[in-house]
Amino acid sequence: KTTSIQSSLRRLLSLDVPVQSEGVFAALDDAFPTGPDPRTSTFILSGLAKGHAVGVALCVLSWHEANKYELNCYHYGAVIDACAKTSMWAQALHLVISMECSKVESSTITFNTAISACEKSGQWQKALHVF
Asked: pTM of the entire structure?
């Protein structure tokens, strides 16, 4: 199973920019026909964050939402981390707000990562308005 998950991550990381959600959705549907478990999702999203694949990670979140699969603070946190690594502070803040709207409980780590995304982009004042 681990090899299959790593293969799925490599496939997702190889998708061309601009990212087409259909390609991401197809890759995930092939890899997880019955849906992923939460740990697998965290692994995939963390790997995408390490690879700075924000667009793909956002599509993975959308795929979870579209299929009504569980999302938690670790999933959002991984994507917020990807945003921080790529100076996408506005997207990071949007994800924090999305978490609240989706009733996903946030964590100190999630908030700190979003604040870090703002700080790295010189937008720390923006974080004050959200938090």
From this structure: 0.87
